[in-house]
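A sample copied in:

***
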Amino acid sequence: MSAVAFKVKSKNGQQVLKDLTSDSTVGELKTFLSSISDVSIERICVLCGYPPKPLDISDNSKKISEIGLKTGETLIIEEKAGVAPPQTSKPPEKIETKPTENGVASHESIESCRPGILMKKVVPSDNSCLFTSIGFVLNGNVDTTVHTLMRQIIAMEVASDLETYNEAMLGKPNAEYCAWIQQPSSWGGAIEVAILSRFYGLEMAVVDTLNAIINRFGEDKNYGQRVFLLFDGVHYDPLYLEQSDGGIKTVFPAEDMDIYHEAEQLAHEAKSSRQFTDLNKFTLKCMICDKFLTGQVEAQKHAKETMHTSFGEV
């Protein structure tokens, strides 16, 4: 008998499980995983290996060594889509399973479960994080050059509608804004998200970890698809679903409320663990005079006094 340890990924984040031995049973494993992931024992689905595959945990009496688990492996915990209510008229039919290989059963032998875990993809803090994040959810890869095209798209849209995009909305004259947004040092925000949502025909759901809410851009357009961005008060990162086959998914049907609720839960968890930027304490650098400034109020004061409006993240 030897101690074993597993890295566990679930909707609650990543944790290390150290309380088991090679002689522990599948039932004991499921109990621990349930407490870590907040998924009921009846609905736990465990993925293991690369690419991750469902693990056969149907026999609670088996030892974990008998199902092929070895210390140091990563276990991904997902939740089954639903459990059928018990039938009283006749006993449940026996499901014929295919042989397992190294303790991993075929998909046909295990009840289907959710396709993956919603995760954050970290992109560079280079003043174009919003555009890089949108590029990732559109194309599935981090491309730090996409901001140039997106900035041009925004500038053309704003320039074409002087009535909507007036000085009151933009905070500066229309022409001045169009020149400003095309500078690589200029940050994007709600106005830019709204324009790109319309241009690409997608609902863009911004998961705000500062306020634990989701701001939906394009919600009133009845778009058929939705993407998710994470915003901590200063920086944007894209969200994606890590699937059991090793691939990723970044665009979701608008009617998929399960993934939407998972994003909501992520926002609440991030706020409770203070994974956001305090706008009164974060540091900026004026890209024109190289002065370091603390907090949003100080940056606004500096801009008003010097007319410098280009700031970088530090």
Notes: The helical segments are 26-37, 129-139, 146-159, 167-170, 174-181, 190-200, 257-272, 295-306.
